[in-house]
Automatic annotation (TrEMBL):
Residues 29-48 bind DNA. It comes from Streptomyces chisholmiae. The keyword DNA-binding applies. This is TetR/AcrR family transcriptional regulator. Gene3D superfamilies: Tetracycline Repressor, domain 2.
């Protein structure tokens, strides 16, 4: 879909608004989404014909957004623990998108998004396994278990931000600290 810069910004505003609304209330109306996006409902419908079309587009866009943020975290540089910490930071910055994916897909991507979701899993699992070899992550715990702990802890942190329990600026550090204590290895921790 080749959009002008203005149309691309409008489309992105609608997607961002849908993520913000639907991660908090999956029953929020298209009118609510349009209001948060700062567009009329007719404008929303020019981009997305109905709720299903917007939902499908948002799931795909959320996976692509998360994947791009993980790429920006530079998963090829540094120790496994450093990389995992940057991935956690990327997940926290993806915020509503990660919460929406949890709510919308319950962790199971659609067939259309399976490839991107698998790339995200593969990057994270590779770093977990490297961390286990390096001794910074507990090698007696299955790598997949650690991956699930990361996802769950990030989601819990994002929910705590939404609930006002912790400030957004402190969430990243608290999530990383929780994970290090839960699955840290015998190597010295930072």
């Amino acid at each position: 879909m080749d959009l002008s810069p203005q149309r691309a910004r409008t489309r992105q505003a609608i997607l961002d608004a849908a993520a913000a609304q639907w991660c908090r209330d999956p029953t929020a109306s298209l009118g609510d989404v349009a209001a948060v996006a700062g567009v009329g409902r007719a404008t929303l419908h020019r981009y997305f014909s109905d709720r299903h079309a917007l939902h499908t587009a948002l799931v795909s866009d959320s996976w692509r957004t998360l994947r791009a943020m993980i790429d920006e975290a530079d998963p090829t540089t540094g120790s496994a623990l450093d990389v995992i910490q940057r991935i956690v930071t990327a997940m926290v910055h993806a915020g509503d998108r990660v919460r929406f994916l949890f709510a919308a897909t319950e962790g199971t991507p659609s067939e259309a998004d399976a490839g991107v979701a698998q790339e995200v899993d593969d990057i994270l699992l590779a770093e977990i396994e490297r961390g286990q070899r390096e001794g910074t992550l507990d090698a007696t715990v299955p790598a997949r278990w650690i991956e699930l702990m990361i996802w769950s802890t990030v989601y819990t942190g994002l929910q705590a931000i939404s609930d006002g329990l912790i400030p957004r600026h402190g969430a990243d550090r608290l999530i990383r600290r929780t994970l290090r204590r839960a699955v840290g290895g015998s190597a010295p921790q930072r």
